[in-house]
Write a structure and sequence with these properties.
Length: about 325
C-alpha cells in the first residue's frame, strides 16, 4: 500500500471502514448486510452524497458551506409549493428549486471571493436568510398542514424498485470525477486549493473559480432537497438540518483535506457509505441518540487523527 498515493490510501481506508462495519453488523445481526438492507443504506447515503459533492468542492479551495441546511429545505418547499403535486408543473418546479440553490450559492461565492467575507460568516448568514425566507414562504406551517406534495411521477421515480437517486448519484459521481480529473477547470480548483496566490500569478481566475464552486454547492444542496422530497412525498421544516454535519463528515472521512487542494469524490462516496453504515449499526444495537452522536463524533476524530499521522509521515 506504500506505493499508493495518499488520496488513494484514504479512499481505501474509507471503503475498508464500510466493509468492517458491515461485517461486524452481519455477525451480530443476521440480515444486516442483506441486499434489502444494503439498498436502504445506499438510498440514505445518496442524499448525503449529493450534499457532500458541493461541500467537497468548496472545501477543496479551503472554504466551507454552512448554508446547506436551509438551501436544501428551501428548494424542497419551492418544489412542492410550485408544483402543487401537478405533473404538468413538475419541470418548472424543478428548475426553480435548482435556481434557488444556484442563486444562494452565487451570493455566497460573491461574498467570499469579491467582498472578502469569511466563508463561515457568509454562508452562516445566508443560511439564516434562507431560513427566514423559507419560513415566510411556508407561513411556518408543518408539512401535514401545508398540503403540498411532490408530483406523483417524481415520487414514483424516487421510491420505485430501483430508486432514481441511485442512478442520479452514479451520474453525480461521474460528473465530479470528470470535472476534477479530466478538465482544465478541475486542475485550477486544485491549484487554488494548494496555493491561491501562486494560482493567481499563473493566470488562474481565483475569484471566478471560487464563485463557480459555491454556486455548484448551492445546486447540489437543492438537488438533495428535490431528491428527499420526491422520496418522502412532502417536505418538512428542518429537513436539511442533519446534512450540514453529515456532509462535512463525509468529506473528512472520505479523505478530502480540510485545508484544500487534496481529495477525490470517490473518497466522499466511500465516506458517505461509511457514515450510514455506522449509523445503521448503532441503531441496530439500540444505542440511544446521545450515544450515537458521541460515537459518531469519536469515529470522525479517530479518522482525522489517523490522516494527520499519515500526513506527518508522507
Amino acid at each position: 500500500m506504500s506505493r499508493l498515493s495518499p488520496g488513494a490510501r484514504r479512499i481505501l481506508y474509507a471503503l475498508a471502514g464500510t466493509a468492517a462495519v458491515l461485517l461486524v453488523g452481519a455477525l451480530l445481526h443476521p440480515g444486516f448486510a442483506s441486499w434489502s438492507s444494503l439498498r436502504v443504506m445506499l438510498v440514505v447515503a445518496s442524499f448525503t452524497g449529493f450534499v457532500a459533492a458541493g461541500q467537497m468542492l468548496v472545501v477543496l479551495v479551503g472554504g466551507i458551506d454552512l448554508s446547506i441546511p436551509w438551501v436544501l429545505n428551501g428548494a424542497a418547499i419551492v418544489l412542492t409549493t410550485t408544483s402543487l403535486g401537478q405533473t404538468s408543473r413538475a419541470p418548472l418546479a424543478i428548475v426553480l428549486a435548482l435556481g434557488v440553490g444556484a442563486l444562494v450559492g452565487l451570493g455566497n461565492g460573491v461574498g467570499v471571493a469579491w467582498l472578502g467575507v469569511p466563508a463561515v460568516v457568509m454562508t452562516l448568514g445566508m443560511n439564516g436568510v434562507m431560513q427566514g425566507l423559507t419560513l415566510g414562504l411556508s407561513k411556518g406551517l408543518t408539512c401535514a398542514s401545508c398540503g403540498s406534495y411532490a408530483p406523483s411521477p417524481l415520487r414514483g421515480l424516487f421510491s420505485g424498485g430501483l430508486p432514481a437517486q441511485l442512478l442520479l448519484w452514479a451520474g453525480v459521481g461521474v460528473f465530479m470525477t470528470v470535472l476534477l480529473t479530466l478538465t482544465t477547470f478541475g486542475r485550477r480548483v486544485y491549484a487554488v486549493g494548494v496555493n491561491p496566490r501562486a494560482a493567481f500569478l499563473s493566470g488562474v481566475g481565483v475569484r471566478g473559480v471560487t464563485v463557480a464552486l459555491y454556486t455548484c454547492s448551492g445546486v447540489f444542496a437543492a438537488l438533495a432537497g428535490i431528491a428527499l422530497v420526491a422520496y418522502g412525498g412532502q417536505p418538512s421544516l428542518g429537513l436539511g438540518d442533519p446534512y450540514l454535519f453529515e456532509s462535512i463528515a463525509a468529506v473528512v472521512v472520505g479523505g478530502v483535506s480540510i485545508l484544500g487542494g487534496r481529495g477525490h469524490y470517490l473518497g466522499v462516496i466511500a465516506g458517505s457509505l461509511t457514515l450510514v453504515a455506522v449509523t445503521t449499526f448503532l441503531a441496530a444495537q439500540r444505542v440511544p441518540e446521545y450515544g450515537r452522536l458521541i460515537i459518531y463524533g469519536l469515529v470522525i476524530l479517530a479518522i482525522l487523527f489517523a490522516y494527520g499521522r499519515e500526513k506527518a509521515h508522507d
